[in-house]
Amino acid sequence: MEKISEENSCRCGKKHCCEDADVPEAVPAAKPSGLPNVALVGNANTGKTTLFNSLTGLRQHVGNYPGVTVTKYSGPLKLFHGEKIELTDLPGIYSLAATSKDERVVIDVLSGRLAKKGTPRPDAIVCVVDVNNLQRNLFLATQVAELGIPMVLALNQIDMARRDGLTVNTDLLRERLGIPVIAVSARKGEGIDALKQAIADVLKNGNKMKTVSWNAGTRKALETLRGGLSEEVSKRVSDAELQRVIFDVASLVANRLKGEDIEYIGELLKKSRACIREAGENPHSTEAIQRYAFIKEILAGTLHHGKERTTFTSVFDKLLLNRVLGVVFFFAAMWGVFWCIYTLAAFPMDWIDGWFGALGESVGAKLEGSPMFQSLVVDGIIAGVGGVLVFLPQILILFFFLGLLESTGYMARAAFLMDKLFGWCGLNGKSFVPMLSGYACGIPGIMGARTIEDPKTRLATILAVPFMSCGARMPVYVLMCGVLQRVLAQNPSYAESSASIASAVFVGMYLVGVLVAVPVSWVYTKFILKSKAAPFVLEMPRYQLPRLRDVGLRVWQSGWEYTRRAGTIIFAMSVVIWFLTYFPRSEETAEQARAEFVAEAAAAQNVPAADFEKMLAAAESAEAPSEAQEALVGELEHRIDGAWMEDSYIGRFGKFCQPVFAPCGFDWRITVGVLGSFPARELIVSTLGITYKLGGDVDEETEDLYAAMEKTTHADGSPVFTIPVIIGIMVFFALCGQCLAEIVVIARESSWKWAGIAWAQMTFLAWLGAVLCCQIGSLF
Amino acid sequence: MCVLNLNCEEIGFSQHMIPLSEAKIGQRVQVQNLDADDPVYQRLLAFGLTPGVEVRIAHVAPLGDPIAISFCSQKVMIRRADAARVMVEEIN
């Protein structure tokens, strides 16, 4: 059997078909582990990842393919006689057309193009197919077969087939395809041993799958193309790759032909495709027609369907895609997801905050002696680590739900229900969940955009998510609405309705983000991201019970990846920011602040400054200070902290930037507060506390802070916090990219270039929004 | 099952061509051999929607778009704007 297959494996009769001239088969130096490499290839929704998980378990490594944001999963697997292999789970795709990044990664790996970058060309392939839709699944298998790598066909989900009364003649299939065909159920653990045995066999025997015998037109097209290439280029590309260039006009494989003149290649391809036309075929459909004809020939008589019966899927779809019930269920489910991310996650987040707070205090107490080192450890390092880990609960919860939604098959239905709302502005139905979770926290939301296959839509979603009003903006809104209410209360015409106006503004802030994000995303898709979005053709898989093991593994991986890849950068940057807020912290500044405090307080209490100074010195040195003494010292410390903040690098920068924010009606305190909250939005509250000399421990409900803000005036005596300015500040925070972690995660999920663009556009739009509020508001 | 419908071409008789987006829910149509360099058509071809295969409009989203089509024992969603570029023939 195997022998026949070897003869059949290269119907095209060319040597290039089976050997990629660029990368010889044996490249031991490029194999980091030195183990044989086996890749899992298959369509999405075939249970490929479940199979991968049951073969490798927790020993997986998660990484990235070089240069693209496609996640690479690999892990070691032990076969029976102790031989070890390295198993790689390639992205789930439907075709090697290479119009998407995922497809390109698969064809790059399989043709050995990434061998020098740490992903060697596999020595064997396990092609995972869903036995319940064998015909379509074999389409990709026939494409992969042409790359000339030994292959095993794993007929997955055999348990479901059995339930539906479908039987498969695997022996006949094996005979016709010339490779081992193993029925498995990754969910039930069935057939796994046979599969391992088959992998070992194939590695030894090198069985290659029978390939499509192309008709004359296609063969001639290939000859024409290869004949027209220079020898050097021709040596680099395999027949299978050249076929992709002929069949798929948009194929990214065309880049392989570089070295040739682009116009010349265009002409050559036209000539090549004309060969297919001359043979009376259509170059756009001939591949699919010939492949499916081949597949039908292979499958004839191998499948036996039982009695047709109503499947769960069609019953569920009747309900879940129903105009009324489906929409009600969708919103109920999404409300549940959101509740968990917002409310449930708050508990572990509070614990993390609490633990790191307590840790900071106890460590801080031991370092009393050296204030600089104490502040570095407590405010820089411990707060930095806490600031990284605090996002974990929300990430883990979101990825748990994403795992559930995807593995049950409901994600495609959710996308189906919501697509119309998002499609027009360049997003799609799958953008809903990331954007919704953006209302709890942008970080899991941005990471959640991974579920979107199309890179352009994914990027548009990543750029839209940070505009959603996340939980960190709430303290800002609470504080500002508190001030707004007080200001309104003093105005006779609003006094009675001040509370309800403030609440309405509060709610309105949650809409500002989405109202800006959607047009921004439209502009991007229309004018900036010029590459054409892939058509949104999405398979609606059968409903399945989720496998908690798979979901759990994914949750764990997402958390670990965030901590390791984004967390380290976030941590490093938060230490830098600590530095900028702490230094230079000169004694002079402190003494000056003290002298000012003494002068002011003495004048207020009508005592000579010298007497007050004595009183203060006594309070400072008292062993058991009275309550009044403690308060006095506390007030002085707040004064000094405020002066240091004003004099810190961030404070100086704030004053320097003040003219930029003057059109927004901000005074230097707000400007410093705004700049000081670039690491995290909620920092505005404590920064304002420090600049108002109330200490950093204030929160958004501290009455003193409200009172101090309300009393603040510009140099000319006019109040700073007028209605337009207060609303302007909120709009600023609603739109601004003030979250270090968020920017780092955007960079991780796209690139630093896009992270920079996201930050710049958000900051600009925020500034513009605040200016508009202030300028338009002051006309009335 | 498509496998069993090898001769789909013979079932329907050429009626008139409409864009796939205009087929009504529950309606059965057949895709023609299009000479179209169109990513949607390419994608559908890869899914097995070769000329002559029978397609049924299975669902329409609550907001009227997208639609879900079923063929070869699978269900695929597609936007109306994309479906408008795929010409099909009605089957009696």
Architecture per CATH nomenclature, i.e. the level-2 architecture of chain B: Roll
Q: Kindly state the number of beta strands of chain B.
A: 6
Tell me the span between the first and last alpha carbons of chain A. 88 Å
Taking all Cα atoms into account, the compactness measure Rg of chain B is 12 Å
Helix content of chain B: 10-25%
CATH topology of chain B: SH3 type barrels
Poorly predicted runs of chain A are: 1-31
Structure description:
Chain A is mainly α. Chain A folds into four domains: 2-205, Rossmann fold (3-Layer(aba) Sandwich), CATH 3.40.50; 216-283; 325-471 and 511-578, no CATH class; 587-740 and 765-777, no CATH class. Helices cover 61% and strands 6% of the residues of chain A. Chain A has 34 helices and ten strands. A seven-stranded mixed β-sheet of chain A has the order 2-3-4-1-5-6-8, with helices on both faces. In chain A, strands 7-9 form a two-stranded antiparallel sheet. The longest helix of chain A is centred in the C-terminal third of the chain and has 35 residues, at 548-582. Chain B has 92 residues and is α+β, with helices and mostly antiparallel strands. Chain B has a single domain, classed as SH3 type barrels, CATH 2.30.30.90. Chain B is built from three helices and six strands; from the N terminus they run H-E-E-H-E-E-E-H-E. Chain B has a six-stranded antiparallel β-sheet. The two termini of chain B are 19 Å apart. Residues 1-14 of chain B have low confidence and may be disordered. Chains A and B meet through helix 4, helix 12, helix 18 and strand 10 of A and helix 2 and strand 5 of B.
